[in-house]
Amino acid sequence: MGVRYDHILVAIDGSKESEWALEKSIEIAKRNNAKLFLAHIIDTRSFMLIDSYDPEIADRANKLAIDMLERYQSQAKAAGVSGVKYEIDYGSPKVKIPKEMAKKHQIDLIVCGATGMNAVERFLIGSVSEHITRYAPCDVLIVRTQKSS
């Protein structure tokens, strides 16, 4: 008797590792007949300086996120996952994913890519995946490779 997951959240940031996380989560969702929830957080901290130069940056970020998530949603559905939804939110992914989205959507597994931050950034602010692992109310799978699960 194995562990069963019913609601899987995939943290999507556009990186290659988050694409690998999506691929693995699709397979896990199919095995468990689970619902798949794609989450993208637009980190508003990155807009602080840019916003004064380009006030439409948030609109463009949102459009890019919608295009990406709709493409991934179609990919998951084509692979045989029936319940696939997505959500875009603004703020810190470190906070939004484990503390808000996971609870709001009754998630029992979060799948995310390992971050590509350098050693100094990890030391100063910590990685998003590390923070998710520390504060998530459910199981977390950190994806580092493309190898199938």
Note the main attributes of this structure:
149 residues, alpha/beta, Rossmann fold, five-stranded parallel beta sheet
Characterise this structure.
This protein has a single domain (7-143), classed as 3-Layer(aba) Sandwich (Rossmann fold). The protein has 149 residues and is of the alpha/beta class. Strands 3-2-1-4-5 form a five-stranded parallel beta sheet, sandwiched between helices. Helix 1 (16-32) links the parallel strand 1 and strand 2. The chain contains six helices and five strands. It has helices at 16-32, 47-50, 57-78, 93-104, 119-125, 128-135; strands spanning 7-11, 35-43, 84-91, 109-113, 139-143.
Looking at the overall shape, the CATH architecture is 3-Layer(aba) Sandwich
Q: Overall pLDDT, averaged?
A: 85
CATH superfamily: HUPs
Structural class: alpha/beta
Please provide the ordered H/E string of secondary-structure elements. Answer: EHEHHEHEHHE
Main pleated sheet: 5 strands, parallel
Total beta strand runs: 5
Number of domains: 1
Distance between the termini: 18 Å
CATH class: Alpha Beta
Quote the beta fraction: 15-25%
Helix content: 40-55%
Number of helices: 6
Low-confidence stretches: none
Biggest sheet strand order reads: 3-2-1-4-5
The CATH topology is Rossmann fold
Give the overall shape: globular
**Rg on CA atoms, Å:** 15 Å
